[in-house]
Fold these 3 entries.
Entry 1:
Amino acid sequence: MLKKFGLLAASLVAWTAMAAGQGAADIDSLPGLGSPVFALTGATVHDGTGRSTENAVIVIRDGLIEAVGANLQIPPDAREIDLSGMHVYPGLIDALTENGLRSSGQRSRQGAGQGRGGQPAGRGASEAENPEGPGLYPHIQASDLMDDEIGDKLSSWRDSGILSVNLAPSQGIFMGQSALINLGQHENDRLIVRSPTAMRLSYQGLGRTYPGSLMGVIAHVRQTFLDARHYSEAWQIYQSNPRGLKRPETDRALAALQTVVRGELPVIFPANQVRQIRRALAMAADHNLKAIIAGGFEAGQTAEELKQSGVPVIFSLDFPTRPKDQHPEFSEGLEAIRYRVNAPRQPALLEQAGIPFAFSSGGSRNATDYLGGLRKVAEEGLAPQAALRAATLSAAEILGVDQQLGSVEEGKVANLLVTDKDLFDSSAAVRHVFVDGVKFDIPEKKKPARRGEDEGLPVDVAGLWDVEVLTPEGSQSMQFDLQVSGSALSGHVISPMLGEVEILDGTVDGSSFSFKINVDLGNGPTEINISGSVSANELNGSADVAGLGSAPLEGRKAPGQYR
């Protein structure tokens, strides 16, 4: 009777998850029903190290990969799952996120209030009362701040193929210690793969509380590292011969920094721009720290320095964008535009320089942004196999879990991602995932119908767009006035330099478009081919000028008062 009741309860759990639109654990895989043995057959396996094997077999037992390869014999006790035509990858790893940690209100007794972008909002009651000192929370561990049933809370991450996340606290200056977890459905303690993985640092000031400025924060960080070393020396002297010596005071924050100053636990430095990266490298060198750069939007420009220092990068896939509250008529400087355009190209530069790097979701709250960003960096020059390695095995190496995660190899944890097409195909869908050997079936996501789709009108493309083109001479503003009829695109390009030019040979395919214009640049007629895609109210693409190369462009839907 108890066994039948357990199966009924498990069925209800699975049905409830499916009804909520979440990936539901396979009925034979739910905790408490024993450990199933699976044999995955027929798929192309991309193991994360650069190798791919067609028509491979993967045997999963006790949550681990027992065997993988072609022409393997299927164990008699295994449940065979035919994945013919599909692709299997190691589970993706989000190497830095604060999603899934309790809110600032729930942990106010441990840290300052959280401001925009996960940075401290300034002085709060908890900061004023913090006995360790302003912004000092290195003793806080992410593993103690995890939301209850975090695997379900981050089910959208799991459904997108992100099966492991490195959780990091987000308050203060010395924010605390990160922890890597798997996104299964076990109780939280069983999800932890390694804790701690790193110490997270911030250069954000504390508002009206010292240190409030960047200069003050830098001085505070340097002094804290010096204090941590002095704390260690004082205790070593006392412990070697305590008689006649006053016992040093115990300090939780400085005690928690001992593994950091010994170079055992890496420090995650936030750094996007060249000057920030160089500042982090200098700080790490001055204090003999093991560093990791997080962000890295200009990391390629410091590739030689990163290479010499041996410092890896956790590159954020939350790319910089034009501020949404910026007035459409505001003309940004060339430097700001170049910063945005070049950000997705940095991983390719890191790969060329041989610098280890991983990927993170950054400040994004949308799980699908990670996979979209992964495909974006591949479009911008990073080889797909290199992108896959960075998202899996390289991330595991940087976080010290490469003996457990990051590749489809014998003896490793069975964290697997199954897609119906190549992962880097924008139309590929996640069909199944395995987390610690537990199988989750991902429901097919139906695209919501939009007004006008029944007439075949891709309504996102049509309309008036304010566009900026980044040319060697600077940013050029213009407008695209686009009309759509079926798959045909027509209209005009309007700019102070070109006037009003008719669009020729325009086509639309879903959210993608292409057209050409003929203009006189002073040397006779010149053909410019423009192509791109739209998403909501944003447009991205490029303009190819015959014989002169290409220039990136981006735009937004014009407000109603314009044209």
Note: Residues 92-321+351-405 form a domain with the TIM Barrel fold (CATH 3.20.20.140).
Entry 2:
Amino acid sequence: MEQINIIYQGKTISASKGTTAIEALSNFFTVDCSRIIAVMVNNQIRELNYRLHEDCDLEPVDITTGDGQRIYIRSLVFVFIRACREVFPDCKVSIEHSFGGGLYCEVHGDFTLTPRQVHRIEHQMRKIVEADEPFVKIDMPVEEAGRIFREMGFDDKLDLLRYRTEDKISLYKCGWMYDYLYGYMVPSTGCLKTFGLKFYLPGVVLRYPDKENPSELAPFKDSPKLFTIFRQSEKWAKIINIENIADLNRRIEEGRGGELIRICEAQHEKQIAFIADEIARQKDRIRLVLIAGPSSSGKTTFAQRLKIQMMVNGLLPVPISMDNYYLDRDDIPMDDKGERDLESIDAIDLELFNEQMTRLIQGQRVEIPTYNFSLGKRVYTGTEIKVNEDQPIIVEGIHGLNEKLTEMIPRENKYKIYISALTQLNIDDHNRIPTTDTRLIRRMVRDHQFRGTSIEATLDMWASVRRGEEKYIFPFQESADIMLNSALVYELAVLKPYILSLLEDIPDDHRYFPEINRLRKFLKYFVDLDATDIPNNSILREFIGGSCFHV
């Protein structure tokens, strides 16, 4: 047989043309498919059973990587949906959002989900895993996929096929069930040994391996306040009848995109006004309003809009930037890579910040510093402020929820707000749009528009940003007095024209190609929505431009 050369970590072997990736890798080490999830073939993600037909470089995709974890979870979701349909044949399964170190899902039918029924579903999943059934990839015309979706009752997928630009589609079959989960799968169900289900009224949390310790389940972290915000967002999506991409596309095609923008923006304004009312109602005790949230949540625009709503209530808030309290650059602690850790709370001069905040609250005049990022030092330019009892101080920054930031100020004098873009729109019932993807797309657009930053440079920073969020923001989110979801159900249809051409310019051999290809594939399903009707005080204007605020 014809031979091909396969390279792994500088070592080359010859193999028969048509050998599978897992067979090739097995020449270098023992492959455990519960750990090695897939393979990179010349910088393209492929399944382990992908057949090699030309000389290539191979790189294993481990479950501890982002791509590896997505493939494991995607395969596990397939098994979960199949098990639900085998226990409750006419049920409808919806994969809602990430939660508690897993995925929150709901199972609907002529029954009420209970812990006992969740146990039955998990038992059925384990039977499927023990049977080690293959995931078979089948390429077929879109029309054939539509027929299969219709037979299986996947009407949401059927609707979305209208917006697919290619004539063919790759479905996966495992046992009797077909599905399309927008990405690659593990070779067989036997690779999915680590999982669990946890009943969480009214649904269930599908638990998967911990990224750092994949032989164990990720620890469950209950976040009831966050869960409530997700539930409210899902109810809002049902009220406006837009729960997936097909629903949104239909609204835009009907010429009602502008109306949808106005409805969503009005809902945001109503939420912000409510928060301002709550602060005004407690104005005798609240002196410090702290706003925190992960990158690209719209914190800056939110703070400006909140200030205006507080002024409507007769308050005269004073904004103070946390950035001005950075330590001099040489005093900022190092991270584990030997770089200055600007995300760390210990990069802030906590002593000075607490001293000045306590003095201001007590009515004293204070000279506020300004941080000169070019010099890497704080400077004083004679900017003095004094606040009265009707002037709450607004502080926006990533550490706002951490008590260490304001430890010298009594808790009763603080009002903490957590803001994040918690995407409520899904691709379809079985495929969610991760909140992180929405924030990343927002940031890519903003960085390109206003900071001259390339897609590559944004992705270079993103891993560090995400580590900072996991360490310094998310652990404190439940301490917030209130949470705001800054996601707008229409926004990805607006952001698509800004970002898609930039993503399509990235070549196939680029080191970030797998991530970029994943984003551009799902963005192509959106019908474009013109930004003209977006008001100039919208949170989205912070990313696409045209904001009336200095952001």
Note: The chain has a mean pLDDT of 94.
Entry 3:
Amino acid sequence: MSTIGRPSLKTVLKTSTVAGLAAVMLSTGIPAQITSSFAAPVAVTAPQAPSFADVVSAVSPAVVSVRVQSDAQPVSDDSGSNFSFNFGGRGFDELPDDHPLKRFFKEFGGQMPGGPNGGPGGRNQDRADRGGPRPHHLRPTAQGSGFFISEDGYVVTNNHVVSDGQAFTVVLNDGTELDAKLVGKDSRTDLAVLKVDATSRKFTYVDFADDAKVRVGDWVVAVGNPFGLGGTVTAGIVSARGRDIGSGPYDDYIQVDAAVNRGNSGGPTFNLEGKVVGINTAIFSPSGGNVGIAFAIPASTAKDVIADLMKDGKVERGWLGVQIQPVTQDIADSLGLKDASGALVVAPQEGSPGQKAGIKQGDIIRSVNGQPIKDARDLARRVAAFGPNTKVDVDLWRDGKEQTLPVMLGNMASDEAASADTEQPDDPAPASEQALASLGITVAPAEDGSGLAVTDVDPDSEAAARGLKNGEKILSVNNKKVESAADVGKVLDQAKKDGRTRALFQVEANGSSRFVALPIEQG
């Protein structure tokens, strides 16, 4: 049978199918056009990240920029270094030579610029001309951040932002510029208070949080004026607490990883309730910019200091007047203590409250008014918190026994005075030398008749590892004065009989002294 002129079965099916689809499309109002079909786009259902928008919206009107003018020459912000560490307006040259941060940056050739506000830091000069009309010769020298703590215009910022200023301008979140006067400042905690001159206006303000409840890992939000960009918001977490960065005796910083840069100084770090947990004051950076390591003054410290500054423009602290150092485990072992806590008295200052009360070299202060002392920094903070002219009971560890001394604290603001430095000869010329082989040092009577001059230190000895050097002087061993190698031997023999494994050496260099615990050779 011929198939010419007949459509194939495949053609018939294809034609009928298309016709049927077209008929359906037409009957349902869908355009008669065939389109390709695609899979649905990817969609993921996941927990929503927390938003900080509500917090930022509420607190932003309380955060301000602080502009400072003075007749000082502006300081360039370009240090030309690979590393920089900016804190509290205190330069690296103010740190002890053996401070780990100073050694680190010297090794890597870092330079030490001023405060993180990007202007001059470390100078705390009192000026008679604060606020008011601006003389024509004034020029911008610093810029930082701040925040209102009262509706009548009190602003908190850093001391190092305003320390050299003669005229101050507060810039609000909406761009309004208002003149301000310096109420007071405190270099020891790097805090300052300004007062905006606007009596007819009420300001949005924020409150301090209870930073004792702040935990490592909590979310925080920093608001400030980095690089002059007002109203900048960054977020992060609390990275650590109780940081000591060597900027002063009251270091107790909260470390956060929120982006904090130059110009954030004096700005607040908030918790998610919109309360201030800390005041940004320092950054650690290899480039001068943010690397996620920033330090904030805790709210508990700031709250008390700011209250004093608002009251009378100054901060008065209790003063004990003793030079102290931490108690290491080696020192604790040398003195028969079970735990390495408290503060070791290196020397009481002449005429200080501590000396008048009977505190001596080698005493370990264990508690004040029954409050245990963790370390040297803890003692400094607790004594300061009592205030001047306060009578306290100081619990000591002396000669293997506990005792308590009543002390009337002085006023740090008026009584504090550095003891006179006594120059020591760089190259003592001892009359005779004797080796203390077990310790790896050679000593001779000091020229001034007090103590023993160290004339040689074995570089492989424990004494060298502990930092003992030629030219230094040993004043006492286990709090007993020594003037010969034989005196040292007698003290060490007694320590062995008492079951001690270490002895406590008081070492003096360049007018200041410290304690070093050295091992006793058993046998």
Note: Residues 318-413 form a domain with the Pdz3 Domain fold (CATH 2.30.42.10).
